[in-house]
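Reopening this ticket.

The earlier resolution said the output was attached, but the attachment link was broken on my side. Pasting everything inline this time so it's all in one place.
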Amino acid sequence: MDKFFGNLHLVLVVGLLAAIALIFGVHHELVSLNYIFRWLHVFFGITWIGLLYYFNFVQIPTMPAVPAELKPGVSKYIAPKALFFFRWGAAFTVLTGLIVAHLTGYLVEALTLQPDYLLIGIGMWLALIMAFNVWFLIWPAQKKALGLVEADADTKAKAARTAMIFSRTNTLLSIPMLYAMTNANLG
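Inline output:
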């Protein structure tokens, strides 16, 4: 058991196979690309927003209290790995969301904020802004702040502040985005 649960990739593959078995075993009559991409959209969204909340609720507030000699453990090992799943969670959440909207036939209407799709459209735009922040503002700043690319101390400090501000911006935007996404079909 230790060997199995010690291998994240194996656990994910078995979880995926279990989900596929559930889909085809229980809901086989409902299976469609839309159904599968909707499920993947939720999975990737949980990964993305879960890590966003980890960074903002745990890592950022805790780092000032971490002794200087222990900070490299976070900045060299934990943060880069978490940021990998964070940014790819963002990319795949947006990609699968756009696929769901296309397959369901409301992509253009939602993105142009048509009245019948206003709430889901607002949620989509908030998610697109957040994903932009992840890839083009947070990640480039984090690479400098964590020393993954060459930067002097002043540049690292400015980059850390930029990453924090846009991470907090995404936390703020995530709250109305989650409301819009979870309530768009209630109208």
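Reporter confirms the inline version is readable. The first helix runs from residue 2 to 5. Residues 32-186 form one domain.
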